[in-house]
Specification:
Layout: H1 3-9, H2 14-22, H3 27-36, H4 40-48, H5 53-74, H6 79-100, H7 108-115, E1 119-122, E2 125-131, E3 146-152, H8 160-173, E4 178-185, H9 201-206, E5 210-215, H10 220-226, H11 240-250, E6 257-265
Parallel strand pairs: 3-4
Antiparallel strand pairs: 1-2, 2-3, 4-6, 5-6
Pfam families: GNAT_C, NAT_N
Protein name: Acyltransferase domain-containing protein
InterPro entries: GNAT_C, NAT_N
Length: 266
């Protein structure tokens, strides 16, 4: 697939595509990026060392993603999955522009998983087979056990019924009747139960998981809810969640990252 075709398929802003196309990119850059993409630290270092590294990263990822289409076709993976999976390029390109006021990709480590065909978006959710890095005794899971990690893409409502459809799609995609699903996210933090109504989408999604660990050092929830991490007093109060969370934080509480697991079968 040509990168021009990919850009249209994922609705990449024309200005972003034209900027990436104008970058002085070479075939050798592409070969080196492809060689390093399975090695997280080396891939990140390679991208960050380039001139206009965010724009370079956008061009590199577009080139590698376009090449991956042949692998999708060879495995019989439908184009909708390819399109939805690599739409993340557009989302993170837009995030980059909003944050740094330049077209490009700053989140190269996340998109590396897509290039390596480890992450697939199947409906509302994205999935990635991983191996646990530590035991979860309460659920008889051990370090090294394979689970399917759930990733929640930004930009759409987290409708519970859509999530269930995604879980079923994941079982079909991986040719499984049942599987252990795992996740870590601010969306799983128990504190949200004090701020949201029980029938809201976030809490219905959260109810799928058995929460077993909380890390209060992460501020991803504040970033997602308020748009950035700043002084608590400066946080906006546009939505009810923003108002409730701001008051919660002003009392000295935190909204970190929670980890959860559950078994799902057809």
């Amino acid at each position: 697939m040509k990168i021009s075709t990919l850009a249209k398929l994922i609705s990449l802003p024309l200005e972003a595509y034209e900027a990436a196309l104008a970058y002085p990119f070479t075939e050798q850059m592409k070969k080196e990026g492809k060689r390093l993409c399975t090695q997280e630290a080396l891939f990140l270092d390679y991208c960050r060392k380039q001139h206009q590294h965010r724009l370079f990263s956008l061009r590199l990822i577009l080139e590698l993603a376009a090449d991956i289409k042949d692998d999708y076709d060879a495995l019989g993976i439908e184009e909708r999955v390819y399109k939805d999976t690599f739409y993340d390029i557009t989302l993170w390109c837009q995030n980059c522009y909003a944050t740094f006021h330049e077209w490009g990709i700053d989140e190269v480590i996340w998109l590396r998983f897509h290039i390596c065909m480890e992450v697939f978006r199947l409906g509302r959710l994205a999935f990635q087979k991983i191996h646990l890095t530590k035991d979860i005794p309460a659920y008889h899971k051990k370090q090294g056990d394979e689970v399917i990690e759930i990733h929640v893409a930004q930009g759409e409502a987290l409708v519970y019924e859509d999530c269930i459809r995604s879980l079923n799609q994941a079982l079909s995609f991986y040719h499984m009747e049942g599987a252990w699903f795992w996740g870590e996210s601010w969306l799983l933090h128990p504190a949200l139960q004090k701020m949201l109504t029980k029938d809201c989408n976030i809490l219905r999604f959260q109810s799928l998981f058995h929460i077993y660990e909380i890390d209060e050092s992460c501020h991803q929830g504040e970033e997602r809810i308020f748009g950035d991490v700043m002084d608590i007093a400066d946080y906006p109060e546009t939505t009810s969640l923003q108002r409730n969370l701001k008051q919660y934080l002003l009392k000295g509480n935190t909204l970190g990252m929670a980890r959860g697991i559950f078994y799902y079968h057809r």
